[in-house]
Amino acid sequence: MTRFHIALIVTALLGAALVVSGNSIWLGAVAVGLVILVGLGVAIPHLSFFGPYVCKGDHARRCVALTFDDGPDANSTPALLDLLHEEKIEATFFCIGAKVARERELAARMAREGHLLGNHTFSHSYATNFFSVARLQDELTRTQAVIHEAAGVVARHFRPPVGLSNPRTFRAARAVGLQVIGWSVRSLDTRIPEPERIVARIVQRLKPGAIILLHDGNLPAERLVVTVKLLLASLRARGYEVVRLDRMLS
Length: 250
Ligand SMILES: [Zn+2]
Fold this sequence. Notes:
This protein is of the alpha/beta class. The chain has helices at 3-20, 27-43, 77-87, 97-102, 104-112, 133-151, 167-176, 195-204, 221-237, 245-249, and strands at residues 63-69, 92-95, 116-119, 157-158, 179-180, 185-186, 210-215, 241-242. The chain folds into 2 domains: 3-43; 63-249, Glycoside hydrolase/deacetylase (TIM Barrel). β1, α3 and β2 (92-95) form a beta-alpha-beta unit. Zinc ion (ZN) binds at residues 69-70, 120, 124, 161.
């Protein structure tokens, strides 16, 4: 039973108790409370309100996982892959299916160089959270197919666009055999222009088992490479090992 189901049951019981005790005037307040709770559940992955949203890994080991969303991107992903190869780092790429269809060789290179490919839907629509289970499942299945065709691997992890979720997110992911992944550290790398500030923000929030959210799509290659270089140096200085997401979760 999810927290969402528990909230529904508690609200129903509370509503019934109010009616029975002649305090129906408070029903509106209970309904507003539920709406606020559901809104928070949609927006905040860490609450795992609608299902098993994985937002961190093993606390016992001083390790973190780097995750890059919204690629593969012909402008920035090759430079990032060069850097990760040089630094011997394995990362996770939550790929957009439509971009994989355009950049098959880049997706193949990710897999060849030891990175994990995850599913970030086919179209990365900002309306994804309003999709039916069938439509969301279609987005996921098409992305699974194109990742498999291009890179020869089967994705096992799914990050919803913008991280918004609802009960349908988990139903669709389960049907396609995907684990829903969030993050514990959001870098805001698409909003903050200075690599030093991005890294300072990440470092402030670091804990063993952190899942760090970065982007390789829609980001200038130079900013991306400088940011990741600085980040890797900061992680090493603090004794953190970078491990691939699946290995940190297993
Ligand atoms: Zn995204």
